[in-house]
Amino acid sequence: MSGHHLAQLNVGTLRHPLDDPRIHGFTSMLATLNAVADRAPGFVWRLVGDGSNDATAVQTTLGADVIVNMSVWESRESLWDYVYRSGHLDVLRRRAEWFVLPKTAFQVMWWIPAGHLPTVDEAVERLELLRAHGPSPRAFGFRDAYTAADAGLDVAPDRRLSC
Amino acid sequence: MVEDIEAIVVLQDPVRRQLYEYVVAQDHDVSRNEAAEGAGIGRTLAAFHLDKLVDAGLLATESRRLTGRSGPGAGRPAKLYRRSGAEHHVSVPARDYRTAADLLAEVADGARLDVELRAAAAREGRAARAAAGPIEDLDAVRAVLSARGYEPRTDADGAVLRLVNCPFHVLSERHPALICGMNLALLEGLIGDTEGLRARMDPRPGMCCVSVTASKNNDD
What we know:
- Chain A: This is DUF3291 domain-containing protein.
- Chain A has helices at about 25-40, 75-85, 90, 95-100, 120-135; strands at about 5-15, 45, 65-75, 105-115.
- By secondary structure, chain A is an alpha+beta fold.
- At the A-B interface, helix 2, helix 3 and helix 4 of A face helix 9 of B.
C-alpha cells in the first residue's frame, strides 16, 4: 500500500436554498451518491457534518450559500472512477440545474500522508492557493498530473532535498 | 500523420482486418489460438498478422500464464492481445476538428451550457432516428449504434446493450459532465419513444457512459 492519499474538496453555490423543491433532484440523490462513494474502490474517507451523513451543513469561510464536499482517496484513478465512472456522473451532468456558474476554481486536490484526515480549513486553504496561483503540486485539478513525489511526499526524509 | 496512414494501411489486408475485428469485439484479452479460431485461419498465420497489428500500434499485447499457475511445469506464458489505446485519424487534405471540438467544449463547459448542448444533441439524435428508419427493438438499436461506432455488446440475458467504444473518447475524458450528458441526450433522441427501450447513464470504467435497456423480453 502506498504511503500517501489524495484529498479533494469541491464547492458549489446552490441556485436555491437546500430545502427548495427545485433542489430536490440534487438532495434526493445525496444519500445514494454517498453510499456509492463509501463502497467505491479506493475510497478512504469523506467529510460529514455533526449528526449527519453528509457535508451539506458544513459551513466555511467561502460563504453561507456555498456547500462543500470533501473526501480522501487512495489514488487519482479511484477518485476519477467515482466522480466520472459511477452513478455520480448522472448527477454531475445535471449540475447546471442546481448550481450557479462558478467564476473560479471550484475543485482542488492535493496529496496527504496516508492516515492524515484533512480539516476543512486546510482544504479551503488549498482551494485559495489554486485560485490565487494556478495549479501546483500543492493544489491542482484532474487536468494536472502532479504526483505525491512532486509534492515531496514520496521521498524518504533523509533523502529529501532541503529548500 | 505518417504513422496514422501506416496503421490504416495495415488494416487493408483482409486477414488482418478480420483478426483485428475479432480481437476488439471480445470482452477479454485474446490468445493467438482464440484469435486464429475466431478468424478461421491457422495459428502461425494468425501470430504473424497479430504481431503486424501490434507493430502498427493497433493492438497491444502482453504475456501471461492462462492457467494461473506459476513456477516449473506451469507452461510458457501465452501472448494475449487487446485493442491499443491509440487513436488513428487520417484526413486528406489535413483537417483538425479535434482541436476545434476541444476548444468549443472548453468554452461550453466553462459557461455551463449543458442544457443547451443536451437540447442540440437530442435534436441530432431525433434526426438520425428519422434517417435510420424504424427502430423497434434492441437489435435495431444495436445496428444503428454499431454504424455510429459505439461497438454495442448485448449482455448475457439479452436485455441490456452495453457500448464498448465511446466515439467522443478524448472529449469525454476532458469534459466528462458536459460530453457524457450530450451523449446521453443524443442516444435518447435516437431511441425516441420506442416502447420498452430506454437509454440511461450507466458509466463503467473503460466503457461508454450510456447503456440501452429493454424493459421487456424481445422474444415476446
